[in-house]
Amino acid sequence: MTPVELSRTVLRAVRRAVDAGELSVAVPARAVVAPPGPGGCGDYATNVALQLARPAGRPPRHVAEILRPLITEAAGVAHVEITGPGFLNITLDGGAEALVREILRRGVRYGYAEEPSGRIVQLHYPCEVRAAVSGQVLAGILRTQGALVRTSCEAEPDPAWAEPLGVTVDAHGRPGAPAPLDVNPRPGPAPEDRIPLDVNLRPVPAPEDPTPLGRDAARWALLHPAPHDRPRITADHLVQREINPLFRVRYAHARARALRRNAADLGFDGAPGDVQPQNPNHSSAALLTALADHPAALATAATRRAPDHLARHLVVIADALLRYQEVTRVLPLGDEKPSAAHRARLALAEAAGTVLAGGLTLLGIDAPEHL
Predict the structure, then answer these.
(1) In degrees to the nearest 10, what's the CA dihedral of 93, 115, 110, 340?
(2) Sign of the CA dihedral with 220 first, then 250, 285, and 350 last
(3) Burial class of residue 19 in the structure, from the number of CB atoms within 10 Å of its CB (0-12 exposed, 13-18 middle, 19+ buried)
(4) Of residues 153, 117, 120, 160, the one with CA closest to residue 135
(5) What angle do CA 246, 247, 249 make, to 5 degrees?
(6) Could you please report the per-residue DSSP string of 230-299?
(7) Along the 371 residues of the chain, how does pLDDT read in single tens digits?
(8) What whole-number distance in Å separates Cα of residue 159 and Cα of residue 145?
């Protein structure tokens, strides 16, 4: 169960309590769920009881007692505990293990739609390097969500930047006469989904030629900022230090692969299992949350037509993975024998590396095995 699904589960519990007359409140639009803070327990915690206490005219713990059995009954929830003034701490039924197993099963396609959506999209953009790179990447992101996508550019991309950056376009034409859209013979789930959706992409242009940065750094420089922000075409994107988010993402992926190689040298591999927080900062919980949010990040990037949303989410995963491997003993030390805990921790690191690899691939950036 992802945090988004768990949030919906909490809201359903609130709605059931309201319908049963146990609470007299307006059902909120969203319920925040996050890794538990100091003094908490379980996989996730929510402050929804504190949020509803005043409008309900009841103490927060009383509201929490009402919601607790309703949340516990939900599929995928093992048990719920109340801590502090009324925080609901939720333990999922094999949540961490199931998430890691799902990521390793799906591989780099984790977060992709299981089947075509029937949506037809034409992306049309100016013949400018940032627009062309953004259009190519957005097309890939939309395809992960099951859309049939065609890209068209106002003119033929300039080989001077198109070839070094690996830019391709399905067709090119003029602003008033884009290439014709292919027809999808399969009917969509709803009439509106069978109508081609034309999207004209016009991000703020690159202030200068990014090709001197090389393919990976140039694409990151163009994709990481929001479309309405002016990209920085500077050598900062080449710095091999933690101040560079691209370096952190690629380094985190390389570290995950190194852990797998080192484990193989010790004669064991990863196996999904129960991963408990190893320190008060809950490094494993933060990493699990970031991984569980990946499908929603892909969907949001597609809906908002914002490749930067995916790029920034990869930074979140990378930072969580680097923190996790820094404070968690993933591999056994000395003569210590590999345990089930080591295998579960390694599987979590491998899952994170897999998601980073898939995200970098969507951005058209290399995911190095060594760095």
Answers:
(1) 40
(2) positive
(3) exposed
(4) 153
(5) 65
(6) PPP-SGGGG--STT-HHHHHHHHHHHHHHHHHHHHHTT-----------STT-HHHHHHHHHHTHHHHHH
(7) 677 788 899 999 999 999 999 999 999 988 888 877 777 777 788 999 999 999 999 999 999 999 999 999 988 888 899 998 999 998 877 667 888 988 999 999 999 988 888 888 889 899 999 999 999 999 999 999 999 998 988 888 999 999 999 999 988 876 566 555 544 434 444 444 455 567 889 999 999 999 999 999 999 999 999 999 999 999 999 999 999 999 999 999 999 999 999 999 999 999 988 775 544 345 787 898 889 889 888 988 999 999 999 999 999 999 999 999 998 889 998 888 999 989 999 999 999 999 999 999 999 999 999 88
(8) 30
DSSP per residue over 36-49, as a string?
A: --TT--SSEEE-HH
The separation between CA 234 and the C-alpha centre of its own chain, rounded to angstroms, equals 27
**Spatial contact of 64 and 49, defined as CB atoms under 8 Å apart:** yes
In total, the chain counts a number of residues equal to 371
Q: From its phi and psi, is residue 226 left (phi > 0), alpha (psi between -120 and 50) or beta?
A: beta
HSE at residue 205, side-chain half, CA atoms within 13 A, is: 8
Of 328, 315, 324, 303, give the one whose Cα is nearest residue 363: 315
